[in-house]
Amino acid sequence: MEMQELKTLLSELVQIRSDGQNEAAVCDRIEACFTGLPVEVRRYSHGPGRDSMVITLPGRDRSRALCLVGHLDTVPVPDAPLWQRDPFGGAFDGAYLHGRGAVDMKGGAAAMVAAALAFLREGVLPPLDLRLCFTADEETSGMGVCLLRDEGAFAGAVAAVICEPTGLRPGSCEKGCLWLEVEALGLSSHGSRPELGVNAIDGVTAFAAGLRAALDSGETHPLLGRTTVSLTTLSGGVKTNVIPDTASATLDIRTLPGLKSDDVLARADQVVRALEAQRPGLKFSLRVQNDRPSVAADPDSPFALAVGEALAACGLPGGEKGLYFYTDASQFIPQTGLSFVILGPGDDALCHKRDERIPLEEVAAAADCYRALIASL
Fold first, then answer.
1. In this predicted model, what pLDDT tens digit does every residue of 87-144 receive, in sequence order?
2. Residue extents of the structural domains in the chain
């Protein structure tokens, strides 16, 4: 794919607003790239305007497949007037393509398309089937990748490339994520007599501190740092001079490989029991809002070595990377056991941020790297 064609494709993908809606329109634009070409297209509907899609390029060995995986939704833009450029304008400044989703991750999606088209336009069959798996709803519940998983989109695959932004460094692991809602019920009293009440806000903050301590094993992962517990929302109280009898909060818990959600919840229950025993009249309830396991690849697997060779062949430095955020990998790697790498264009520090932008040259380099990897398998 020529640079001008790649720029046009990525610009048009960014111009399609798909912030929790309208992934079907993005699928339409991508599918149009393959009109008249020998590919198999399957669409999966999640409701009006919300589609996932798998485009399969048949290879010489149809018993094997490599899956390239990318999501088509973006986060919203609540601060559009503060952007330097229209977040849905898809503007190009000669080096960077600007707009919401340019990095996360329509740049990766465009690179997936370009890699497949390189084989098709040259009339070269890849050594194995190439499946382009485009998913809806990664930024929320992951219903797109879950449906593809359940419908067998990853069956027969030898490995998967999750094309999220890594600056073209191979991501071998990502943190798990557990969002936990905690509600506390206490007893109100006059603000001048706190000893006559049971402060629910104090209870919630004590729970957060207790769980943070309970999960602090002292372990530091070389690529992912430490398990973290962040109190991210807090509500409670009706008036300054009233001890609050109800409070609620959410905790964003990011876990290292090896720490399972069941272990986190067991320790949360221990913290609850201890606080309820220490503070008579205080009661807690817990609810899981989101649960994504951590995933880690074998850095010495044949696939990991093939990724390193493809990067080297394309003149890219490599250097293993860990991802602090979760990707679609968390929704199908634990179930399938596939070898995988997280590898894509763009600086992940710009994900979800104002003035998101991606170097077009890096998108092109990603396409070349994917093509080299596919050809080597």
1. 999 999 999 999 999 999 999 999 999 999 999 999 999 999 999 999 999 998 899 9
2. 3-174+294-376, 176-292
Q: What's the token pair of residue 195? A: 């000893």
Residue 81 makes CB contacts below 8 A (sequence gap 6+) with none
Per annotation, catalytic residue among 23, 104, 129, 138: 138
Asked if residue 3 has a cis previous peptide bond (ω within 30° of 0), the answer is no
Question: pLDDT tens digits, residue range 346-369?
Answer: 999 999 999 999 999 999 999 999
Q: Which CATH number fits domain 176-292: 3.40.50.2000, 3.20.20.450, 3.30.70.360, 3.90.79.10?
A: 3.30.70.360
Sign for the CA dihedral angle at 101, 145, 181, 275 comes to negative
Catalytic hit among 23, 51, 73, 104:
73
Burial class (CB within 10 angstroms; exposed 0-12, middle 13-18, buried 19+) of 130:
buried
Fold match between domain 3-174+294-376 and domain 176-292 = no
Q: Which CATH architecture has domain 3-174+294-376?
A: 3-Layer(aba) Sandwich (3.40)
Q: From 42, 18, 295, 15, select the one nearest 140 (Cα to Cα).
A: 18
- The answer to whether the CB of 279 falls within 8 A of the CB of 300 is no
Is residue 361 among the annotated active site residues? no
Residue the block writes with tokens 């968390």: 330
165 close to 107: Cβ distance less than 8 angstroms:
yes
Question: Model pTM greater than 0.85?
Answer: yes
In single-letter form, the type of residue at position 203 comes to G
219 catalytic residue (yes or no): no
